[in-house]
Automatic annotation (TrEMBL):
<feature type="region of interest" description="Disordered">
    <location>
        <begin position="404"/>
        <end position="428"/>
    </location>
</feature>
<dbReference type="Pfam" id="PF00734">
    <property type="entry name" value="CBM_1"/>
</dbReference>
<feature type="active site" description="Proton acceptor">
    <location>
        <position position="407"/>
    </location>
</feature>
<dbReference type="GO" id="GO:0030245">
    <property type="term" value="P:cellulose catabolic process"/>
</dbReference>
<dbReference type="InterPro" id="IPR036434">
    <property type="entry name" value="Beta_cellobiohydrolase_sf"/>
</dbReference>
<feature type="compositionally biased region" description="Polar residues">
    <location>
        <begin position="407"/>
        <end position="425"/>
    </location>
</feature>
<feature type="binding site">
    <location>
        <position position="405"/>
    </location>
    <ligand>
        <name>substrate</name>
    </ligand>
</feature>
<dbReference type="Pfam" id="PF01341">
    <property type="entry name" value="Glyco_hydro_6"/>
</dbReference>
<feature type="active site" description="Proton donor">
    <location>
        <position position="229"/>
    </location>
</feature>
<feature type="compositionally biased region" description="Low complexity">
    <location>
        <begin position="64"/>
        <end position="95"/>
    </location>
</feature>
<feature type="domain" description="CBM1">
    <location>
        <begin position="19"/>
        <end position="55"/>
    </location>
</feature>
<feature type="signal peptide">
    <location>
        <begin position="1"/>
        <end position="19"/>
    </location>
</feature>
<keyword id="KW-0119">Carbohydrate metabolism</keyword>
<feature type="binding site">
    <location>
        <position position="277"/>
    </location>
    <ligand>
        <name>substrate</name>
    </ligand>
</feature>
<keyword id="KW-0624">Polysaccharide degradation</keyword>
<dbReference type="GO" id="GO:0005576">
    <property type="term" value="C:extracellular region"/>
</dbReference>
<feature type="binding site">
    <location>
        <position position="373"/>
    </location>
    <ligand>
        <name>substrate</name>
    </ligand>
</feature>
């Protein structure tokens, strides 16, 4: 689901003027009309059909994988990261209006059932017990098709019952994820609607159905992450034809979602990629501009709390030391990214706070390239959801991605195959996005950090 955006990051923002492309600049790809040769000392190297890049060296990198790994550094990779690693983030307590405070996340029975089935398939007794304990960790329910919306109704009704019987206010956590031409820069998570075929109207109907369910159970709180990858793709991937074509529709659809869901009191965090995507210094300004304008165009609703980062990704909130793949970006983890972005949002009138996905961020230094996102080998469950975040900007650490569900298939014959899922750092064989990946789940359990 994560796009290859990071590799396009800087280039999308800089005009290409010289006859020879600079080191790390784009030098080819579908629709590319700029220079196709690189300055001396670098070689034009194909990353994917849409993007070739000038990589330092005199020959292409060795073909260790079926597809050349993407390169995520647009900076000056020969220079050491400019900022030294810091200790745990400092800051005040969560904002007074933090919607995660005073509520208990409702545990999705769907995920609990997946976990129960997964645990029962494990023979090692210790691992089985640890695996079963994941059923008590709140995750988000992905409403990735209209057919999932009745499940929201079921969850809301059950949460209301629990709330009434225990006196403990419940919150149902959802991901709104059904834009037409979804996942415009990758393939694994293509959705059910297309812009060409009535997509915007279908999307508005999808939102209306969610709103109708919420109206039936008005006193259970709902917190939503809005459309992973969509707006971030508009910051860096407009050189991908499908993203350029989707821009107007994405903005209209997200505007509709924010307005309609605000009207029924849903607290929202728009997806903002991660440190290795919008966290590159050149992308921060354009990202802040886009998110602030989306916020203001939707009426500056207090229910639009801010942004979600690292959704389904693997970055640490606060890395002990920078992963070598982050070289060139001082914002090498989520706390650096958030601390850099939040003031820019504020100065543009968006007092954003954040949620950060740490569901699969327990282990670091696993990836060959920062842009790799598919079923990364060796990943472990990360910090459990908490409002004790250590940052004034972060409302809660969350688990948005239900760990154990696949990011995408490694079957190259599948129509939804994305080559990222067959890179050497991707666990294989992997089933289709969203379906259960037992071997991967077992690794997440055994590599959990903190341990289970
Ligand atoms: C791979 O995908 C193709 C096309 O969907 C399917 O026919 C085939 O059975 C799949 N192979 C595996 C090993 O799942």
């Amino acid at each position: 689901m994560k796009s290859f955006a990071a590799l396009c990051a800087l280039v999308a923002l800089l005009p290409s003027v010289s006859a020879q492309a600079q080191q790390w600049a784009q030098c080819g790809g579908i629709g590319w009309s700029g220079a196709t040769t690189c300055v001396s000392g670098s070689v034009c190297t194909k990353q994917n059909d849409y993007y070739s890049q000038c990589i330092p060296g005199t020959a292409p990198p060795p073909a260790t994988t079926a597809n050349p790994p993407a390169t995520s550094q647009p900076g000056t990779p020969t220079t050491a990261p400019s900022s030294a690693p810091t200790a745990a983030p400092t800051g005040g307590s969560p904002a007074a209006s933090n919607p995660f405070v005073g509520v208990t996340p409702y545990l999705s029975p769907y995920y609990a059932n997946e976990i129960a089935a997964a645990a029962s398939a494990i023979s090692d007794a210790t691992l089985k017990t640890k695996a079963a304990s994941i059923a008590n960790v709140p995750t988000f329910t992905w409403l990735d098709s209209v057919s999932k919306i009745p499940d929201l109704g079921t969850d809301l009704a059950a949460a209301k019952k629990l709330q009434d019987s225990t006196g403990q206010k419940q919150v149902v956590q959802i991901v709104v994820y059904d834009l037409p031409d979804r996942d415009c820069a990758a393939k694994a998570s293509n959705g059910e609607f297309s812009i060409a075929n009535n997509g915007q109207a279908n999307y508005e109907n999808y939102i209306d159905q969610i709103v109708a369910e919420i109206k039936k159970v008005p006193d259970v709180r709902v917190i939503a992450v809005i459309e992973p990858d969509s707006l971030a793709n508009l910051v860096t991937n407009l050189n991908v034809q499908k993203c350029a074509n989707a821009q107007t529709t994405y903005l209209a659809c997200v505007n509709y979602a924010l307005k309609q869901l605000s009207a029924v009191g849903v607290y929202m965090y728009m997806d903002a990629g991660h440190a290795g995507w919008l966290g590159w210094p050149a992308n921060l300004g354009p990202a802040a501009q886009l998110f602030a304008s989306v916020f203001k165009n939707a009426g500056s609703s207090p229910f639009v709390k801010g942004l979600a980062t690292n959704v389904a990704n693997y970055n640490a909130l606060s890395a002990a030391s920078p992963d070598p793949i982050t070289q060139g970006n001082a914002n090498y983890d989520e706390i650096h990214y958030i601390n850099a972005l939040a003031p820019q949002l504020q100065s543009q009138g968006f007092p954003a706070t954040f949620v950060v996905d740490q569901g699969r961020a327990g282990q670091q230094n696993l990836r060959q390239q920062w842009g790799d996102w598919c079923n990364i080998k060796g990943a472990g469950f990360g910090t459990r959801p908490t409002t004790n975040t250590g940052s004034q900007f972060i409302d809660s650490i969350v688990w948005v991605k239900p760990g154990g569900e696949s990011d995408g298939t490694s079957n190259s014959s599948s129509p939804r195959f994305d080559s990222t899922c067959s890179l050497s750092d991707a666990a294989q064989p992997a089933p289709e996005a969203g379906t259960w990946f037992q071997a991967y789940f077992e690794t997440l359990v055994s590599k959990a950090n903190p341990p289970l």
